[in-house]
Amino acid sequence: MTRAILLVDHGSRRAAAHAQLEAVAEQLRPRVPGDIVAIAHLELAPPDIASGIDACLAQGATRIVVHPFFLGPGRHTSDAIPTEVARARRRHPSLDIRISEPLG
């Protein structure tokens, strides 16, 4: 089983915000050897969650942990991200997709 960790933030129109999430992904990759680490944004910028999941699949993921890069629970972590993950589960019914707790 190949695990992927998909870091998901809100998204921004500012490139610096996207660079921050990619920097976190770069720091995480050596800590989880053998795992795929990818990023996605809930809105405002590509890749969106569906594209992030597809990218993980293209790299061979059979299990994906969607990790909300948010400080705490809220509308995005309790509604928007689960809605997007539910859509992905319908598109890929054999894929094991889970959502972790927000960064907090």
Topology of this protein?
Layout: E1 3-9, H1 15-28, E2 36-41, H2 49-58, E3 63-68, H3 75-91, E4 96-99
Parallel strand pairs: 1-2, 1-3, 3-4
3D architecture notes:
With 104 residues, this protein is of the alpha/beta class. Helices cover 39% and strands 22% of the residues. It has a four-stranded parallel sheet, sandwiched between helices. It has helices at residues 15-28, 49-58, 75-91, and strands at 3-9, 36-41, 63-68, 96-99. It is built from three helices and four strands, in the order E-H-E-H-E-H-E. The mean pLDDT is 93. Helix 1 links the parallel strand 1 (3-9) and strand 2.
Please provide a brief summary of the model.
Strands 2-1-3-4 form a four-stranded parallel β-sheet, sandwiched between helices. The chain has helices at residues 15-28, 49-58, 75-91, and strands spanning 3-9, 36-41, 63-68, 96-99. The chain has three helices and four strands, in the order E-H-E-H-E-H-E.
